[in-house]
Design goal:
By secondary structure, the chain is mainly α. Helix content is 60%, strand content 10%. The N terminus is likely disordered.
Length: 213
């Protein structure tokens, strides 16, 4: 782990099984502080440490015919008062660099949207929207749950790295989250609609930046 100058370390922050060392002035520090005010019982843990996530990994591999083997490593999952960080973000959380922590910030901002969804919609509706159907044309999962979350992701990426957010690779990755195997091809027939979501939000962000608002 990178050794940080003492004036850049806030504290050793414990929630669950690990200790996090954060920069005093980082976005991630402020986000954690706000999250634990908004969700006092929140726990953050490594996804691979949860037995049922390990079991879900094999179910997802089977459902996607082997097309999604990165459920544990690449995908962060949220349920009420619990964020299970993907393997890559768990490593970044302990990596020590600002860039690492900014990437984790982007993801947890996305997950905060889902924590609020659980509060607003309730666990039963969230589970039904997520699971029915499990793959292909999952309107509730795509349009109700993940669209708001991924719009937050775009906003955060624009703030952290505008050039990347405006580039074709990020746009293609963003669209493929809805049309590819990561979420079971949840909106594959509607690629143009997904692209329009991205383009409209990016245009809004660009206009806000140009106007200084």
């Amino acid at each position: 782990m990178t050794t940080l100058p003492p004036d850049q370390i806030l504290f050793k922050f414990r929630r669950g099984p690990e200790v996090f060392t954060l920069y005093t002035d980082s976005k991630l520090h402020r986000l954690f502080r706000d999250l634990y005010t908004e969700f006092p019982n929140l726990r953050i843990r490594a996804k691979a440490d949860c037995w049922w996530h390990r079991m879900a990994h094999y179910i997802i591999v089977a459902l996607t015919l082997g097309q999604n083997k990165l459920y544990l490593e690449n995908m962060t999952t949220t349920r009420p008062d619990n964020i299970a960080l993907s393997g890559k973000h768990w490593k970044r959380l302990h990596g020590g660099s600002r860039e690492d922590h900014d990437r984790v910030w982007e993801t947890i901002m996305h997950e905060r949207r889902h924590l609020r969804d659980f509060q607003e919609l309730g666990s039963c509706i969230m589970v039904l929207l997520w699971l029915i159907p499990p793959i292909f044309v999952c309107w509730g999962r795509a349009a109700v749950i993940e669209k708001p979350g991924y719009l937050v992701s775009l906003q955060c990426k624009f703030e952290n790295n505008r050039a990347w957010a405006e580039g074709p690779e990020y746009r293609e990755w963003w669209i493929n989250c809805f049309t590819g195997p990561a979420y079971g091809w949840m909106y594959t027939p509607f690629r143009k609609s997904v692209a329009s979501w991205f383009d409209a939000e990016l245009l809004r962000l660009q206009q806000e930046a140009a106007s200084g608002s």
